[in-house]
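Hi W.,

Here's what went into the run:
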Amino acid sequence: MEYLHKFLLNPDFKVEKFDNEILLYAVSNTSGVYLNETAYLVWEMCAQGQSVEEIILFLEETYPHQKETIGEDVTAAITSLVDYGALIASSDE
Amino acid sequence: MPAVMNKTGSRTVGFCDQFVTINFYGEELEGLVDFLCCDLQTGPESAARARYDVMLGGSINQMLSLWLGEQCQYSGECRYELAYTLINEIIYQCIVDNAAGHAIHAAAIGSANGAVLLPGKSGFGKSTLTAWLVSKGGNYLTDELVLLSGKKKQLLPFTRPFSMKAGSSAILNSFVQYKQKDTISGVGGFMLPHRLLNPDFFPLTPALSLILFPEYREGAATELNQLSSALGCAKLMECYVNARNIEGLGIDQLADYTRNTPVFQLVYGSFDGLYEQLHESFPLLF
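Here's what came out:
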């Protein structure tokens, strides 16, 4: 995954918010994907137009004690959301 | 359908005001239809959205067949296969345009605290676990389908005989005595009247009080874990069968159900110790 890449939210997906969790679901086929707090944060930062690199830097500053694993966690979350169809790679870098 | 036979009788049955009429040709088929449908809602024939013909005989002696108009849905010699096809046709017709509530692929029992929903796809052990729960005192509601409706979370069950996979007979024999003649059986499975476990059955539409996702895993130790509302909703969506009939898909209402109802996942490999564990966690279950 290129770190300068940005991702767009797939407009087919809707959000149902719970306390610290989120459920994304596709309107077209009503399948749902559960996001934990970290994945939810990644999702929201993608929605704000942040690149992968910007998301990782922000989270490393916010959670310095988890710095070693944040890059891997973010790319895994994004890959999973792309595979699910909830995020679409943007041509804007 | 063959036009040579005389109709013996008919039943108009359904679920949540969606009805089908089943015409039967042959007295012994009346027993089969009543075996399957005796606890379903009844309605006037004029309300039927589809008409099925169940036949015995025809051009080949003792051949069973099920027809929807001119379309043959089943033809063969196995009463179980015929019954299985017919009950699935009834479910399909009653759900395909139903917008009266949220149809969930789930078993359910009634308890002193309200309805316990056991959602899950085929093969997750819903029917066997439900039969066991009923044998311990739960009130049978369904082993296949419910409709959840309104803010009061009323649960409307599609009450049919237990439908078991063939491999379930050994474990079922450990807690219920039945004879082959009580069942309709075939190579793939068998159907068992729920009154064998639940002789004092009466129809109920209780409010939802607990969501328990069962998962049978051979040899697994029993695990009971509470799920978050979000995870519970995600799992419930996997069993939600009529979303496209509901305005806005109804996910917000499903989410409300899981926000306001305890949600657990139960992994089990046998019934050993299960009663004690469930009774400790849910004292009003039995």
